[in-house]
Design a protein that fits this description.
The chain has helices at 2-38, 43-74, 87-112, 120-131, 133-160, 166-184, 190-209, 212-227. By secondary structure, it is mostly helical. Helix 5 (133-160) runs antiparallel to helix 8 and helix 6 packs across helix 7. It starts with a helix and ends with a helix.
Length: 228
């Protein structure tokens, strides 16, 4: 009986890993369509490809958002949901944002003074914005944070760290941060650590407030600072 339980548990986790990779894959495909649109110079072609791209992005976002909500309906031991905004919560969010600003400022100083190279991910974002400034800026500030919080915080943490214990919650925050770092920088260097630190702060925000809108808002503010 014990071996059967282990097999079932392993099969369940394997299926969850495959599903999570699937969500990540369709997000990358949908966001990649903006890069395709940016490569079209002729206005008539650009409008057509851009329209298809925006439709794919909207459809993908709707599907992932629905899947996250469905996941919480099936199993939600931490009682994630929609909590009212209060002055206390807003104050706490501002404190976390100040910590993120400190990390970003330190990171920027290291890059400016050539102690670190500009992350390849940021270079790619900058190049995409140059080709298609309006839509890539809007995507980076508003849509990418929603996608990444749903996938890297909501679905990831609920799939693999679904028990509401102190140890499990801290492991979820750490793992989510490391995965977030890996998705933005695969070199396992200081830039990866910086991305992982930001991811962990966003994961802490999600876990602390038990409402993904808070980590999404924080992520949006962080991305806005990054492109200004």
């Amino acid at each position: 009986m014990k071996s059967t339980h282990i097999i079932r548990y392993g099969a369940q986790k394997l299926l969850q890993i495959i599903k999570w990779i699937g969500f990540l894959f369709i997000y990358l495909v949908a966001s990649g369509t903006l890069d395709v649109a940016g490569s079209y110079i002729a206005l008539s072609q650009l409008q057509k490809v851009l329209g298809i791209s925006l439709l794919m992005i909207a459809t993908t976002l709707g599907f992932i958002g629905w899947r996250y909500g469905r996941q919480l309906t099936l199993s939600n031991p931490r009682r994630f949901g929609r909590l009212p905004f209060t002055l206390k919560r807003v104050g706490q969010l501002i404190i976390i944002f100040a910590i993120i600003l400190a990390v970003q400022s330190t990171w920027g100083w290291l890059v400016i003074h050539h102690y670190l190279d500009l992350p390849a991910n940021q270079q790619a974002v900058n190049e995409a914005i140059t080709r298609l400034p309006l839509w890539n800026n809007l995507f980076a500030v508003f849509l990418a944070p929603i996608f990444e919080e749903l996938i890297c915080r909501g679905i990831f943490m609920n799939y693999f760290f679904n028990r509401d214990t102190r140890l499990n919650n801290w492991l979820a925050i750490l793992a989510s941060g490391l995965v977030f770092g890996f998705l933005h920088d695969m070199n396992f260097d200081v830039n990866w650590l910086m991305y992982s630190a930001l991811g962990s702060l966003l994961a802490y925000t999600y876990m602390h407030f038990r409402d993904i809108r808070y980590s999404i808002a924080l992520h949006m503010m962080n991305n806005l600072i990054s492109i200004i």
